[in-house]
Amino acid sequence: MTEHVDILIVGAGPVGMTLHCALAAGGLKSRLIDRRPQAALQADPRALALSHGARELLEQIGAWPARAATPIETIHVSQKDGFGRTLIDRAEHGLPALGYVVRYRDLAAALAARIEAGALIAGAEIIDTAPDDDGVRVLLRDAGGERELRCRLLVHAEGTPGDDPAVTVSDYAQHAVICEVTPEPGHGRRAWERFTPDGPLALLPLGDEYSVVFTLPPAKADAVMALDDAAFAAALQAQFGRRLRLSRPGPRSRFPLALRRRRTLVDGRQVWIGNCAQTLHPVSGQGFNLGLRDAWQLAEILLADGVDRASLDRYAASRRLDRDGGALFTDGIVRLFSNDCAPLKLARGLGLWALDVFPPARHFVAKRMIWGARAWP
């Protein structure tokens, strides 16, 4: 038999669950599908950088993991072997924090606690989809065998855009090496964004540790992954500088970096949000926050206008400024700062100096990072 649902969300990560919870808060039901077993959904140890704007959205659906979130009160931005720096302080904006660092598993658990029983189909593999004018038929396989679902709207919220003619890819020729380190003295709730010719280096406060995003060309990433802990800490220290002592690195992982963007967010009765719609460079921590705003705005439009083609077209149009702004912002920063060109180094230093001494410019950048396009009237 075919099961009928209004909205079917593929992907029970934080973005997919946020959409489900936002719809439920407005009285609209949806179902979630995830290929992972339910226990695995809350087992991911990665760290996520959430803006204060993301906190405001999550609090509205009762899913803010307050006890697990480490606040970022200041952000120090500088470039290696060059002058110029700027400091962004939460006090300038009257906020408790500019952002927060949360483990993926803690955010997933807070959202999962808001999911009603039976709403999630975990450990399910989608075998086929068959769109038509009125919706989408989805054939899936789970522990109970094969079954068919019919939905009015299919939302893709799982994974990174793959090899698809609808997706543009710009390879940065950089890999991100991820780990945690211990700062001495403590981090004081300060995040660091350090630009180097190899790529940006970010230190994000997480508990008593720093979560590190160490960006390097692939060959250098190979080399640092092969180092023992002491040598890795020394390489990280050399890239960061001597303002803090960094020691006791934890387990390391890595992933390649590219800008991937789906040209169209809507195709018939299907829509793509989060990393399915765009994957940004991790510099300034914009990608995940952009995905949460995707989910929130889609929920707002569906709740206000219903599930139809016209509302989906309005959603796609409404996301253009935020998506284009996020991609332009992160891509521009990476390409401007990831080099050792002397004229550009001078220009970067002057830019950082100008941000530091001209508050309106600093406020504009900070508001863009905190609220995305919602910060622009």
Strand composition percent: 25-35%
What is the level-2 CATH architecture name of the largest domain?
3-Layer(bba) Sandwich
The number of helical elements comes to 10
Number of domains: 2
Structure summary, number of beta strands: 20
The stretches of 5 or more residues where confidence is low (pLDDT under 50) are: none
Give the helix level as a range of percent.
25-40%
Computed structural class: alpha+beta
In CATH, the homologous superfamily of the largest domain goes by the name: FAD/NAD(P)-binding domain
Mind sketching the topology for me?
Elements: E1 2-10, H1 14-25, E2 30-34, E3 47-51, H2 52-60, E4 70-72, E5 74-79, E6 85-89, E7 99-103, H3 104-112, E8 120-122, E9 125-132, E10 135-142, E11 145-156, E12 167-184, E13 190-196, E14 199-206, E15 209-216, H4 218-226, H5 229-240, E16 245-247, E17 253-262, E18 266-267, E19 270-272, E20 278-279, H6 287-305, H7 309-318, H8 320-337, H9 342-357, H10 359-371
Parallel strand pairs: 1-2, 1-11, 2-8, 5-13, 11-19
Antiparallel strand pairs: 3-7, 4-7, 5-6, 9-10, 10-11, 12-15, 12-16, 12-17, 13-14, 14-15, 17-20, 18-19
Helix pairs in contact: 1-3, 1-6, 6-7, 9-10
Describe this structure in words.
With 377 residues, this protein is an alpha+beta fold. It folds into two domains: 2-70 and 102-166 and 258-326, 3-Layer(bba) Sandwich (FAD/NAD(P)-binding domain); 71-97 and 172-257, D-Amino Acid Oxidase, Chain A, domain 2 (2-Layer Sandwich). The protein is built from ten helices and 20 strands. It has helices spanning 14-25, 52-60, 104-112, 218-226, 229-240, 287-305, 309-318, 320-337, 342-357, 359-371; strands at residues 2-10, 30-34, 47-51, 70-72, 74-79, 85-89, 99-103, 120-122, 125-132, 135-142, 145-156, 167-184, 190-196, 199-206, 209-216, 245-247, 253-262, 266-267, 270-272, 278-279. The strands form three sheets. Strands 5, 6, 12, 13, 14, 15, 16, 17 and 20 form a nine-stranded mixed beta sheet that branches. A hairpin with a 2-residue loop joins strand 10 (135-142) and strand 11 (145-156). Helix 1 packs parallel to helix 6 (287-305). The radius of gyration is 21 Å and the shape is globular. The mean pLDDT is 93.
